[in-house]
Amino acid sequence: MVMEKVVYQRPESLTDTVTHYCPGCTHGVAHRLVAEVLDEMGIREKTIGVAPVGCSVFAYNYFNHDYVEAAHGRAPAMATGIKRVRPQNTVYTYQGDGDLASIGMAEIVHAAIRGENITVIFINNAIYGMTGGQMAPTTLAGMKTTSSPLGRDVELTGYPVKMAEMLSTIDGAGYIVRRSLHNPVNIRKAKKAIRKAFETQERGLGFAMVELLSSCPTNWKITPQEALDFIENSMLPVYPLGDYKVHPELAGLRV
Amino acid sequence: MPIRGRIEVNQLHCKGCELCVMACPQDVMALDMEHLTPKGYHPAQLVAEGCTGCAICAIVCPDAAITVYRETPQKTRATA
Amino acid sequence: MTKQLLKGNEAFAEAAIRAGVEGFFGYPITPSTEFLEYMSRRMPELGRAFVQAESEVAAINMVYGAACTGKRVMTASSSPGISLMSEGISYIAGTEVPVVIVNVMRGGPGLGNIAPSQGDYFQMTKGGGHGDYFPIVLAPASVQEAIDYITLAFDLAEKYRSIVHIVVDGNIGQMMEPAELPPMRKIPKEAPEWAVTGAKGREPNILTSIYIDPVDEEVVNIRLLKRWLEIEKNEVRYKEYALDDAEIAVIGFGTAGRVASSAVRAAREEGIKVGLFRPISLSPFPKKQIEEISKRVRRILVVEMNSGMMLEDVKRVVQGRVPVEFYGRMGGVTPFPDEILDEIRRVDSNTADVADLEREQWLDRLEARIAGGK
To answer: Which chains touch B (3 or more CB pairs under 8 A)?
Structure first.
């Protein structure tokens, strides 16, 4: 008789709800990785998520744990409120680039400054997805969007903002890294980073953020595979992957 | 003998994005152009022998739609 | 407990602590800052959460998050700060979580000044934030009343899963008065069943203000409205003075009502049959009570520290039964009892029709008074 084992199955921390994400959108990969990490750490039942406004506004429908839905950009403030009155819970925000790097810039920076013991999953896909593909603060120079139809003119609209680099200068930050979701090797690395970002919180080492370069095939107007190639060829040079700040107590942590 | 595996693709979750097809190192996956999922997508499926159960397809799947199984070699109990 | 000499803002903060507040999130703004300062010392002392946020926007969203855990939480601010909080206030209303917000009102619009005002009447009572919701608004007129109503505010907020605004002005926030604080309330161990606490052994709780299907949103609107109608039925609060035989009714809330009470007493000594009605719940508005009064008196004088905001609510209730006159000071100016006494005398002898010109007539009198250097 042939015996077989399950090598991979849908994590318990995801509900059975089909996501509204477009085919090939790597939001789903990021969701899956967070869910896998919560499963592996055994913390699903004490975790409270904070959803943003943006494509992942309905994240709370897809995760099988307590969730609240924030106002646009305010997720880090909301997470602060939750974590301060219930420090025994694991609290994370899941935010896109419009939410975190535009309207919510003050909230994310000050959550880091206060060294809030929260975990932030930051999806950088260089565009506003939910509203239909407008320019984001993370949009690449020259990139065409519905609100930069001739390509982003950095002289008029500024340069792409590098959140990981910026937040890594803040003393209250315990773990700040950038990863990418464009191929299996990088997805594995992204998962380890997410694990470390939650471990940062469990150890009380301060603010943790994983910036994930993510695809938006629909608004980039290319196929899902081409979108992954775009991350590799066009986003990586602007947004270098790496560990921008790692608390010394995490340095030796193997996950 | 090479390690053998298989996959099950959840027809509710699969959106036919083809990322698994492109990522499969054995090149044994393709979209099933004969069928549509309840949501109206052509689902991914195994189309040839050679799946090793490496789970690369599941790692790239944005919809956690793929369950991966791998055969385990049978240990034969040593007799005295 | 005995009475102590207490400073407004600090007494309110201590009252909130004794009511069991477990999280305070705020941003410094005059004339409410002592509230935050007091909390910054007292909350950590008791092992409770205090954060000085980077802005009022962040502060209210911290309150929002903390409220989702089912704990008693609050903020205190002043007019411009409340404007910044309006976004979060709407989300809190839409998510149906209990929150207490103290507004120590100041002169405006814009940056205005830091002097006492009641110019936020519309902002507070009519919502302030976007969308279909109704906040409870309580307007105490003394340090003791504020202490009592802050305690009550938490109970009401929880009972109705509603926002409760406490509106005072800089006078009450800054004054020192003898008052008595309530005993320390025990913090409940159990969270309400709707709260986010971690889905241990239960289905996940989701707290959101999104109902993407209009039909679902309407269900929420209906629920909120029904709850509001209950509140209107049960939670009207007010104080009356010398109204039994009154022919003139003065209506004023908060500091304006308190100043008016001195004027009413003085007018009584002169033999004018005048009484005072002081709404404490500005929302729900004491409609029935004012309607009843309008059936008994000859004339009504509304006194406010704004341009005549509650005046509009009074007129809607009175429906032209008797003339409604107005006297207000704006911009952070508090009227003197003498000013109101003059007004009571004038209203008592006035038999002319007001014909919806009460604001124009008042402005003429006010400008004459200002020109006269009074």
So the answer is: A
A5:B70 CB<8 A: yes
Cβ contact B22–A9 (<8 Å): no
Pick from C25, C56, C68, C74 the residue to mutate for testing the A interface (most A CBs within 10 Å): C68
CATH number of the domain where residue A50 is located: 3.40.50.970
**Using a CB-CB distance cutoff of 8 angstroms, which residues of chain A are in contact with residue B26?**
none
- A179-208 CB burial, b ≥16 within 10 A, e <16: bbbbbbebbebbbbbbbbbbbbbebebbbb
Asked, for residue A249, whether it belongs to a domain, the answer is no
Which domains can be identified in chain C, with CATH numbers? Answer: 4-234 (3.40.50.970), 238-371 (3.40.50.920)
**Residue partners of A240: CB distance under 8 A and separation at least 6:** A178
- Is the pTM of the predicted complex or chain greater than 0.90? yes
Residue ranges of domains in chain B, CATH in brackets: 5-70 (3.30.70.20)
Per-residue pLDDT of chain A (255 residues; tens, 9 = 90+): 678 999 999 999 999 999 999 999 999 999 999 999 999 999 999 999 999 999 999 999 999 999 999 999 999 999 999 999 999 999 999 999 999 999 999 999 999 999 999 999 999 999 999 999 999 999 999 999 999 999 999 999 999 999 999 999 999 999 999 999 999 999 999 999 999 999 999 999 999 999 999 999 999 999 999 999 999 999 999 999 999 999 999 988 998
Q: Answer whether residue A46 is part of any domain.
A: yes
H/E stretch holding C99? strand C99-105
Place of tokens 């593909």: A133
